[in-house]
Amino acid sequence: MNSKQLINQNIERFYNKASEETRLDKGMGIFEFERVKSLLEKYSPNPSSKIIDVGGGTGKYSEWLAKKGHQVHLVEPVSKHIKIAQIKANKLKNKFSIHQGDSRKLDFPANYADLIILHGPLYHLQKKEDRDLTIQEAKRVLKKDGTILAFAINYTASTLVGLLNGLIHKKTFFEMCKEELTTGIHNPPDDFPWLLAEAYYYKPAQLKDEFINQGLIHLNTYAIEGLAWLDKDFFSNILNEKRKKTLMELIQVTETDPYLLPFSPHMMIVAKKCLSPPDGFSR
Fold this sequence. Notes:
Number of strands: 9
Order of helices and strands: HHHEHEHEEHHEHHEEHEHHE
Number of helices: 12
């Protein structure tokens, strides 16, 4: 299947130029990778769970989960990522399967997975109906009493970065920030081609509402980077074991504080498909 039918061409072009494969190996990505793995571990305690990693990129998390003994299926729309993931899977004894597909129409039966990870879809679907379809599909494929872990970008992300490095005073960057803060819509200006392709940035309460409105039970919302990345010497301190310990403890103390969630560029929501749905909802 041609991935250009699955994903907007601007997003495809962005990922063809950028290296999603190395993003988690440098800078803030190293910290993000470690932090996300600790959260995934919290919600995949049972050995050999059936896990679907939707929008899982080049398979970094799929590979890690497969090595832990889980039965993992990666779903990804970008052709470049599929090829890289296939090389990873081929090297494993417990291989993960790879499907080029769309989060809005998953090629899996109902009540199939113990855990569904939505790692990319909510980043890039600007229309609410597309995000709703993604959440509905995850719910359909999830076993009763199964869990969804969904990742989102915070509506404050660009603004905080802009304030920390002076970009907020560039007119086009500030206009972009205003749009994100008021509507959630992110479109990179022409003079900032290195910024993330068109995307959707969430308010924490709105993220929770989109899952509750599909009849799912909200368990928690976690900050990924939390406040720690605001440390002015973050990159050197994260390499110092003693200082890293302080930063990690800060995250753990504040990770689910609803008032502090907007200070974290990324967040993860945990939702459950309940055994008996609340009144007014159907499974």
